[in-house]
Amino acid sequence: SILEEFRHRYTERNALSLAQFKQDAIYMPGANTRSVLHALPFPMVIARGQATTVWSVDGHSYIDFLSEYSAGLYGHSCERIWTAVNSAMKKGWNLGGKNEYEGKLAQMLVERFGNSMDMIRFCNSGTEANLMAIGTAIAYTGKQKILCFLGGYHGSSISFPEASPCYTMNPKYEFVLAPYNDILATDAVVEALPPNSLAAIIVEGMQGAGGCIPGRPDFMQHLQKLASEHGALFILDEVMTSRLAYGGLQSTLGIKPDITTLGKWPGGGFSFGAFGGRHAVMEMLDPSAKKLVHSGTFNNNTISMAGGIEGCNIFDREAVKSLNDLGDTLRQRIADVLKQRLGHRNTSDRNEQANGAVASASKIYISGVGSLMNVTFAGANKDILQAIFYHYMLEQGLYVATRGYVALNLETKVEHLDIFVRAIEKFVSDYQDLL
Ligand code: PLP
């Protein structure tokens, strides 16, 4: 089959990656420590990166359209981040105390997300940030139920895949699920709860891992109202979306969450998570209040704090805007290609996508907001088409996620978009009969 041919060529071209895969598989299940990096027949090993190029150990170069699932905002080996971290590290790291950087980064992020955030705390990943936010909501409200959404992803141990082929590592919280972007169905789920049991609603402003599905503003505003009517906290997971507007996606959705969670880019490209919100909630975490303990050896680690400060300097209002403009342009150009070549109703209109209109009309569609997007396949052969697309793009020298996810970075230029759009055009014309 077509896919087997792609995989055969891939195996031939990537002998060194295959050798490392086999060696690592002795000590790591599936030679893997991040499920998302699993790829068939085996993942390629990336040896180095510079600006927006990555090189595999097999000596091939790719334009990086994955950007470390959005955490690689600055492009590879960013000089300014390197300098900031290097000068911090010269003074030692793991110093076992408060450091000079944490307060500065806290101030920068609170000022940036000031729409809803008065205070902030750091941790080491987006997963942790969401676990801490949920724990805080349970402690603050004294209630247990957490409303989440199908297709939602809040980290390795808080995920709700729509079609789950396997177990998740979700803890035994009292999660209840509702469909995303569906006000009536969500109301029905909440009405069926025992009285006074809802501790929190946690939601992404755009479902990232769920396929870059933009949340409808009216849905988001409704959730905020619902949370407040039920004495629950409204948690907005901005781990993926905080890059989509200077004050986070919340600033474009007309909402003011009680707690916002962050991850990825604000740590300068190093391990990072944070959660912040209103005074009344966050003050529970003041150790002298003796209400709620939150600890973590690396919460204030020098590298993420110093790298994050420089990252926030780099990703200023202008950089946010131009990166998102670039993403809007790319999505529009892809939508135009699909429309011209396939005659489908492809569009980058966020509401149409959110309503599912696009998915039902096409076997390939593009969705997303600003610099984050997904090329997704639908129909009976969707998994095979998605895998073919992944290998096709690799053969064109373009690195995207296996699930078709694309994140731009600050080194992405219009010339890279041109190459990407040409590859899509070629893909669509080569496989027109399958689409
Ligand atoms: N929340 C969202 C919306 C994410 O996209 C992710 C990661 O992709 C996470 C949480 C988890 O972040 P981390 O991988 O840093 O644990």
UniProtKB/TrEMBL annotation:
Family in the record: Belongs to the class-III pyridoxal-phosphate-dependent aminotransferase family.
Protein name according to UniProt: Putative glutamate-1-semialdehyde 2,1-aminomutase
Coiled coil segments of this chain: none
Origin organism lineage: Eukaryota, Fungi, Dikarya, Ascomycota, Pezizomycotina
Entry's Gene Ontology molecular function annotations: pyridoxal phosphate binding; transaminase activity
SUPFAM superfamilies registered for this protein in UniProt: PLP-dependent transferases
Cofactor(s) demanded: pyridoxal 5'-phosphate
Pfam family, any one: Aminotran_3
The organism of origin for this protein: Mollisia scopiformis
InterPro entries: Aminotrans_3 (IPR005814), PyrdxlP-dep_Trfase (IPR015424), PyrdxlP-dep_Trfase_major (IPR015421), PyrdxlP-dep_Trfase_small (IPR015422)
PANTHER family: GLUTAMATE-1-SEMIALDEHYDE 2,1-AMINOMUTASE (PTHR43713), GLUTAMATE-1-SEMIALDEHYDE 2,1-AMINOMUTASE 1, CHLOROPLASTIC-RELATED (PTHR43713:SF3)
Keywords, comma-separated and alphabetical: Pyridoxal phosphate
